[in-house]
């Protein structure tokens, strides 16, 4: 399904195809506390110089993110979020994501119309997975189902960090990471990595595999020129590996103690990880 825009809030979103059309993926949101309206990083009126300090992270999004990332069925399989995960962690993550997405949309808006100049997006702004069949606790009359849809997960594309180059602290890995991060958006050599989670209420309903496929077909391929996507999971994360396999990823290798050093609150030490690779059909590298 193409990218749609909520007529009530002007927020762009992607809706999954049936039978999962109650699931949408939006950019991170802020709200204007004076009007309670959703502010999207896609809004062309958001100038880079505007202060956004007065905007707030929606309370329902903070609550949903905090609950999920303190749920052992979710956090135990993730490498980077802090644990315990606080409301402040959630707010700062959403604000950071909002600014990142605003930069992505601004680059696209600033291209001249009607020319052959094409700005590739340097990332995917569709990250917040929401369920329009469930009402947010804070929902109000007159709001659209898109605006009211509670957050149920996250999907994130970022420049790949080369797990297969070990050890993690090695110079070789740092150089590879920095080189990949410095490549121009849309470049054929850019290697992307994917991360995702869903609230445990939404596990095993076939959602994540379709989210990944939809984000790839609706944004990452046509707007980012994404060609190679890497995924990694702790060994034993059957759900994550199954999702990636279903999307066409192939297992590359298993790396003993290949994760970053985990915080003591998450058991400490390093865990074994499996690395998978997806390549866009029709390209050969
Ligand atoms: C991993 C995760 C995103 C999977 O999402 P999901 O929507 O539940 O997965 P899907 O329902 O799309 O499943 C796709 C396939 O994986 C299989 N699968 C899903 N969870 C599974 C599990 N725990 N064990 C075995 N297979 C599983 C499904 O059966 C399905 O296969 P099928 O289509 O042949 O039936 C979700 O379990 C989650 O958020 N886990 C915690 C966080 C996490 O692990 N993130 C990834 C870090 S690398």
From TrEMBL:
GO terms, molecular function: acyltransferase activity, transferring groups other than amino-acyl groups
InterPro entries: Acyl_CoA_acyltransferase, GNAT_dom
Ranges for domain N-acetyltransferase: 189-250
Taxonomic superkingdom: Eukaryota
Pfam families tied to this protein: Acetyltransf_3 (PF13302)
Gene3D superfamilies per record: 3.40.630.30
SUPFAM superfamilies: Acyl-CoA N-acyltransferases (Nat)
Official protein name in the record: N-acetyltransferase domain-containing protein
Annotated source species: Talaromyces proteolyticus
